[in-house]
Design brief:
alpha/beta; Rossmann fold; six-stranded parallel β-sheet; 11 helices; 6 strands
Length: 189
């Protein structure tokens, strides 16, 4: 994943999604929600939308709406809770990464985004009880916020931290493929 970010950094940087959406760098929060644990119960998705709406009082909340999440929101009759958010259709890889890089921070339940934000030094708030990427917590770039306890003031405090630097994590670089091929050559595969 990190290798892709490095290989395609010119294409990511040349994305015009920020201008297209009329956003200002570091003046918006990017939110992504798609895991069933957060979308299969009306109370949980409602709570998440309440938190996002509370945050939208201070910052634009850009919410690329996953089709499954959208279906659940409408099925549960919660679409009125989307009004305060900048809901957009899902975007392509380069545009999405540009949205991450230019945001104040990201609120997500995605695993991969935790890595991408850590690599770029962008604060990440993960709306889950746990993560399969504990190194992002150790770096301090990512923080877990269990949905039942998620507090918008605490989330905003984490997102506004200024002391983030891109995470230098061993083996998270643009040489992953070369190392894989080297191992395969040794094994004659």
């Amino acid at each position: 994943m990190i290798e892709s970010l490095e290989i395609y950094k010119d294409k990511i940087n040349s994305s015009n999604i920020i201008e297209k959406l009329n956003l200002s760098s570091r003046r918006y929060i990017l939110a992504t929600i798609h895991r069933q644990e957060n979308t299969d119960t009306p109370q949980i998705i409602s709570r998440i939308l309440d938190v996002l709406n509370d945050l939208s009082k201070d910052f634009t909340v850009v919410f690329p709406l996953h089709p499954g999440t959208k279906n659940r929101i409408y099925e549960y009759g919660l679409d009125d809770k989307l009004i305060g958010l900048k809901v957009i259709e899902p975007v392509g890889y380069f545009d999405f990464i540009k949205l991450i890089k230019s945001s104040l921070g990201v609120i997500t339940d995605s695993g991969g985004i935790q890595e991408e934000t850590s690599h770029f030094g962008i604060p990440c708030c993960t709306l889950r009880d746990n993560t399969e990427r504990p190194i992002t917590l150790e770096l301090g770039s990512n923080k877990l916020f269990p949905v039942a306890e998620a507090d918008s003031a605490e989330i905003l405090k984490h997102l506004k931290r200024q002391n983030f630097i891109p995470g230098i994590i061993p083996l998270w670089d643009n040489k992953v493929s070369k190392r894989i091929f080297s191992v395969l050559e040794k094994w004659k595969l």
